[in-house]
Amino acid sequence: xxxxxxxxxxxxxxxxxxxxxxxxxxxxxxxxxxxxxxxxxxxxxxxxxxxxxxxxxxxxxxxxxxxxxxxxxxxxxxxxxxxxxxxxxxxxxxxxxxxxxxxxxxxxxxxxxxxxxxxxxxxxxxxxxxxxxxxxxxxxxxxxxxxxxxxxxxxxxxxxxxxxxxxxxxxxxxxxxxxxxxxxxxxxxxxxxxxxxxxxxxxxxxxxxxxxxxxxxxxxxxxxxxxxxxxxxxxxxxxxxxxxxxxxxxxxxxxxxxxxxxxxxxxxxxxxxxxxxxxxxxxxxxxxxxxxxxxxxxxxxxxxxxxxxxxxxxxxxxxxxxxxxxxxxxxxxxxxxxxxxxxxxxxxxxxxxxxxxxxxxxxxxxxxxxxxxxxxxxxxxxxxxxxxxxxxxxxxxxxxxxxxxxxxxxxxxxxxxxxxxxxxxxxxxxxxxxxxxxxxx
Length: 441
Known about the structure:
Blueprint: H1 2-9, H2 20-29, H3 40-71, H4 74-101, H5 104-128, H6 132-156, H7 166-195, H8 199-218, H9 234-241, H10 243-249, H11 252-267, H12 274-281, H13 285-309, H14 316-336, H15 340-368, H16 374-403, H17 405-426, H18 428-432
């Protein structure tokens, strides 16, 4: 099998690195929370992901604050999410195919270059107070870059660590990404407050993307497994493109996990409305906005560190269902809060519960998917999650415009809890899921 070949081929030779056999023996004797960090190329990937997430989170604060300052419109804020989700929907099939057909590292490099160019475009538009249409155009370009980068970066983890380390690697990947998401919003809000504008925030985001490119160039990844070439023909090509969708449809546990993530973020999109809460409800200004934007990521970091030091999940399905339920409850409390520290705490819990969901979902994807299909399955997952993030932002902005931000957030939290109940009923495999390695389908 493809995964057997990966485990046999993955032996690191650098000082300080260890072989998969040694790691497996160590895992059997004692749980090592740092075992994935023994791999040099995984460490480089983590650093690069830190910078990429840092750049995106600074951008989120900057674009949200600048557009709301200019327009005062919740609908304009929602349009930010819509501009980035359109390319995710349009490009997820070719993005997954390219991640399986060509070098995943090269796909990420090209995506980061596009992101950097779009960030520089926002720099110019911010400086000149350019039209909203061009700003949205840059956001569309960023969404396109993300649609190619996400499935490739998720699948690339399997080329730098062995299978028995996937859950630990996913936990550290989530932890480091969220750490950057803690520092990114806080840094973005601080820079906006100190520099009285968002222009230089966009420039710094472009620089972070370029550094990620340099780190990728330094990486040495194992050759990925590819499916044999098919005869030329439109039907064959289309079949290869949609194979990831077909695979997910035949794997109920993975489909249930993705569905939970999709609707939880789609309905509980409180973070999209943070500029409104910071300015009009909590009255904390741009620096307070930065900390609110960072709160959920801070919670995710703390939870990811806890998960890294714990043994692998024993009741993964029940844990996931409870985590998403907690996500909905925290969303409701945040929606009605007028006290900054209570709002901050609820956002912290949102991030902590979401971290559990991310680790379980991503580890399932790596463990249950053959390497030659990880790009396409990852692209479908990215579409689900990216759609929920970006369309959730648009939905939250639209509903807030119609009924107000408080009701928009509270009804979203209630909807999230209802979705958990429906998923638990429709997919009993999720309730029965114990360890992530176990096949319950």
